[in-house]
Amino acid sequence: MVIETEMITKYYGSKLGCKDISISVREGEIFGLLGPNGAGKSTVIKILNGLIFPDAGSARLLGKPIGDISSRYRIGYLPEKYRYQEWMTGRELLSFHASLCNLDKEEAKHRINDVLHLVKLKEYEKNKIGTYSNGMQQRIGIACALLSNPQLLFFDEPTSALDPVGRKEIRELMLDIKSRGTSILLNSHLLSEVELVCDSIAIINKGLIVKQGNLENILNNQLNLEVIVENRNDAMLTALSRIATNIESNGNNIYMKVSKREDISEVASLILQYGGHLYGLSQKHDSLENLFIQLMEEGV
């Protein structure tokens, strides 16, 4: 595991920052940290980056306790509220960051060329940062985070200020970075973006993890069904309620949720058993947005 936390807790005076946070991030995956504003996401990020210390619990990065200097050389960080020196060119900014990474001259030159190509800014390396678009500034920030060839990246809201084209570019870049074996911890509130790139997620609310795990498994946990039935009756709906939840009907259409694929055939059988004429059955997975809103409304 590149990140392992066990019951980390942080208070700011009497105010809870986060409590009992336990997550595991595997090598080569994108892990999404989700939650509303003030949920505790930034507190977790700051603890993992050694900017603040937990009041309880423990965490390890790349097999080392948080705060271990040797692991610092193997991580990269793109903060949410970044501001780069506008009078510098892209290459000058990267050279400055290379010096902060203690890269020697030859290694720095090689790495700068590599990351410029990766973030597709090679032709703009001599342009001043002040002339860069928001998307280009995000990409030069990612280039800075990649200079030390890290095994682990922290991205804090990397697409929040971008237009759809810019978000697509950053999304593709994250997937490219992942394909090279680098792990990413992504902090974001843009749920559609998370759904497209993340392998696993943890949803935080009021400082606590309310849901976590493999994203595909979480979204497949409940299947939404829409069936078209003639001759619907109360006995049929009662029977369906034994295997389905959230049953709603509108004319000949019945909407419901089931927990596993095997229940789909059982739904069809029950409809026929109770005299219904089944003319259509379709399924779709819950979206991450629907799951997120449901958890927030439940107040968990």
Describe what this molecule looks like in 3D:
The structure is a single chain. This protein has 300 residues and is of the alpha/beta class. 36% of the residues lie in helices and 29% in strands. It has eleven helices and 15 strands. It has a six-stranded mixed beta sheet with strand order 7-8-9-4-10-11, with helices on both faces. Strands 1, 2, 3, 5 and 6 form a five-stranded antiparallel beta sheet that branches. The chain has a four-stranded antiparallel beta sheet with strand order 13-14-12-15, covered by helices on one side. A hairpin with a 2-residue loop joins strand 10 (200-205) and strand 11 (208-214). The longest helix is centred in the middle third of the chain and has 16 residues, at 164-179.
